[in-house]
Amino acid sequence: MTMPPFHLAFPVHCLTAARAFYGELLGCPEGRSSDEWIDFDFHGHQIVAHLAPSPSSDAASNHVDGHGVPVPHFGLVLGMADWRAMADRLTTAGVEFVIEPTIRFAGEPGEQATMFFRDPSGNALEIKAMANPANLFAK
User: Fold this and answer.
1) pTM, whole model, 2 decimals?
2) Residues 47-76: pLDDT tens digits?
3) Which helix (H) or strand (E) holds 72?
4) Pairing verdict, β 97-104 and 112-118
5) Cis, peptide link before residue 109, omega less than 30° from 0
6) Quick check: helix, strand or coil at residue 94?
7) Parallel, antiparallel, or unpaired for β 67-71 and 60-64?
8) Helix, strand or coil for residue 71?
9) Which of 46, 92, 115, 124 is least buried, going by the fewest C-beta atoms within 10 A?
């Protein structure tokens, strides 16, 4: 099944830091940009970092499988090998995790590898991989 790409615009405090984080660390190719925003190719999805120097706030966190998951957050569902490679890359780079790379819902249909971290502007990201990709929406 071919899925259409999603589009997400989010605030950042510094475009230079956004370029370093999304472009260099996460490996997202840069698309169009201006003095106020940058498009990134987030594994086939368009994310746009918009310069917003005023601080934005996290709304909340929700309890999920023993962890305080930051809300709002956005991210990707990768294959397990790509998830492990991303976890290794972020760990090696010294990224501070909100939730360290871990497996949650072990033995359940929703078993997944997950990790949460923040970009330099405080936006929360989750990168996950399903033990069984067919169970992404399983109950």
Assistant:
1) 0.88
2) 999 998 776 555 567 777 777 877 789 999
3) none
4) antiparallel
5) no
6) coil
7) antiparallel
8) strand
9) 92
